Amino acid sequence: MQRIPVTRDGRRGSEVLLIDSADVVKIEMYRDRDYLIHTKTQQFYLDTSFDSLEEWLFEDGFRMLDSTNIVNMNHVKEYDSRKGVVYLGDRDSKETKTASAARIQKEHIEKVLQMLQISNDAVPEGQSDFDPVAYISSLVSENEHSQFLRSYATIQAVAAKKKAEEKILHMAYHDSLTDLPNRLLFQKKLGQQFEKVKESGKLLAVIFIDLDRFKIVNDTLGHYVGDELLKYVAAKLKAYIGPEDMVCRFSGDEFILLLSDFVHIDEVKNFAKGLSDLFNEPFLYLEQELYIAASTGISIYPYDGQDADTLIKNADTAMYRAKEKGGNTFQMYFREMNHRSLEQLNLENQLRKALDKNEITLFYQPLVDLQTGSITGMEALVRWKHPQGMISPADFIPLAEETGLILPIGNWVLRESCIQNKKWQDAGYPDLTVSVNISVNQFHQPGFVKYVQQTLTETGLDPHRLCLEITENVAMKNVTYIMDTMNKLKQMGVQISIDDFGTGYSSLSYLKRFDVDTLKIDQSFIRELSGDEDNMAIVTALIAMSKQLKIKTLAEGVETQDQLNFLIEQGCDGIQGFIFSRPVPPEQFEELMRSQHHLSKVL
């Protein structure tokens, strides 16, 4: 409570008294910057400046009603809007003091309107000629016990509190990066939609979207670029959906859509097909073009689930099936997927323990020089000796990549291959080069070059006796980073091979700039050589191009005499395939070296 300094006669040097601001009903200006202080029964003269007074009284409910009156709103008992008079006590009492309210400041009106809006009692709809002063006055006139106005401070405090509550509520239900609804709001909206579609007989679709290869963007260009890409995708999706639909950011690079108000599943399929068209144009960042693709899974209410959790889980399951198909596509959910998902989950749990249980092992397939017919190297191929039988790499490598297990497995393969090759060298066998497949996640892991260097140092293997194979699709993504990494590896003496060449969409201009040693022709071209003139032309062109670029060629999957003869005629440098040897365990590969297995035996 403020204490106000006053005198009884207003003269300089008179005794100064202190009165409580709560006892003051009105402050009245009678001369320029001279004020009378009124209580209910007395009056005094202010003993300080108006500026100071305003600071003192700001929190105590004092407001200027006109140019000569500052009124304590806590003492307002009634307001006569017709006369423009405020009564500071009982209207019928002769002692009650009054104040003119003919002039009310615009700022005051705005503050009061804020208060009314906060109270959900805002301007009535459809009243374009609404008079705020009259409206405020009528509110007070209707209730003789109500105060005329509230303190500005009260209004501001309530407004700030309301704004804070709204912000907290928004944060609870929205993603901070994209400002899209989050999974909590999505589930809430989905629950509300159930009742509506039950009455209308229409369908709902939950569409689960996961960006393909988003981790590569984060790992190579940084999280800032990844965040900008996510905001770009969010804006695209938000613009694509209808007014009754919803898109939310589920987590990471996952988005989920709620599609409502449709009657046939084909409508959902057409919607999903259009998703791929959203990202035909690349996302640009500092002249870097990033092309986006996504895997999409769809579940339908009521067929694929009766509650939010089930629908979301089934859409997620369908999305993973789309990933298994290579991504950049959509997949409708069907019940058999759950059984497969359970199998995949069990397989993942077992794969996590496979390294510790020594179930992961390596087989080696010889690489043969076509000019000498001798073994010049071998490709290390990972195998999983599961207790229930050997599991194909085609089944567990994609799972390892998806779960991140490819990093520990891939690093183990690299180290084990170097150890084994060094053992054979120390045992007196010919110096051979071991080729190791490097996954995209492995190649982009931080410190990969350093890990290769450390592995070679610790195992003692000559760097020239290690060849790292990367697929064509890996090599053509983020070319600047790939070239820099390749150059560092080449400086160490490590050889580089491009695997599965011809199956992607590579640029020959980039291939010219890559300092690679070997180009491996994919087995899909070799398999169809016999009688297929197109494949024969492709293989011939690849071999001729490689010779011009001074890159060796090695054909994969050679199985027949006709295939071998054709490759020899075209001048291919080397082969690997069943015609010479299948992938074999280390002890059998050692026997091939011991017997000096030669291509002449095949011919």
Automatic annotation (TrEMBL):
Residues 202-335 form the GGDEF domain. SUPFAM superfamilies: EAL domain-like, Nucleotide cyclase. It comes from the Bacteria. SMART domains: EAL, GGDEF. Pfam families: EAL, GGDEF, LytTR. InterPro entries: Biofilm_reg_signaling, EAL_dom, EAL_sf, GGDEF_dom, LytTR_DNA-bd_dom, Nucleotide_cyclase, Rev_trsase/Diguanyl_cyclase. Residues 344-597 form the EAL domain. NCBIfam families: GGDEF. This is Bifunctional diguanylate cyclase/phosphodiesterase. The lineage of its organism: Bacteria, Bacillati, Bacillota, Bacilli, Bacillales.
